[in-house]
């Protein structure tokens, strides 16, 4: 279960509100409040930087359900591990049989979108690219040189969930 959603007012604009919300979240999870850090407890930090989404569009016809299930579980755990977020916040979406061309060819290909609120800095995209290409090549038979991956760091105020935004 995801933590409650923050009010839509950015924390930077209302520090008292941010501290109150963070304190309530820490009390709910039983974590210690760390006043003055700006990161009052781990649940609050995770909440502010949550919701990785991995979407895979592929021209390949879908393999058996158990193979698809395993691929999506592997994509989810890989995203959580590399982006550094709890897997309970990760969503994957697989769209097989998409009409894709790559280099003017209809040969098997994939377009992958990785979106997250934070967590995509440093070497994360390169590591994620290598891991995702390996997973897709193995599960779908798409060569790594026919896989495009687009990484997007999305501001929390542009990510909606449960009738609100995350920032």
Write the layout of secondary structure elements.
Elements: H1 15-29, H2 42-48, E1 53-58, H3 65-83, E2 91-95, E3 110-116, H4 124-140, E4 147-153, E5 160-161, E6 164-165
Parallel strand pairs: 1-2, 3-4
Antiparallel strand pairs: 1-3, 5-6
Helix pairs in contact: 3-4
Describe this structure in words.
With 167 residues, the chain is α/β, with parallel strands linked by helices. The chain has two domains: 1-48, no CATH class; 53-156, Macrophage Migration Inhibitory Factor. Helices cover 35% and strands 17% of the residues. The chain has four helices and six strands, in the order H-H-E-H-E-E-H-E-E-E. Helix 4 (124-140) links the parallel strand 3 (110-116) and strand 4. Helix 3 (65-83) packs antiparallel against helix 4.
Short description:
The protein is of the alpha/beta class and 167 residues long. The protein has 4 helices and 6 strands; from the N terminus they run H-H-E-H-E-E-H-E-E-E. Helix 3 packs antiparallel against helix 4.
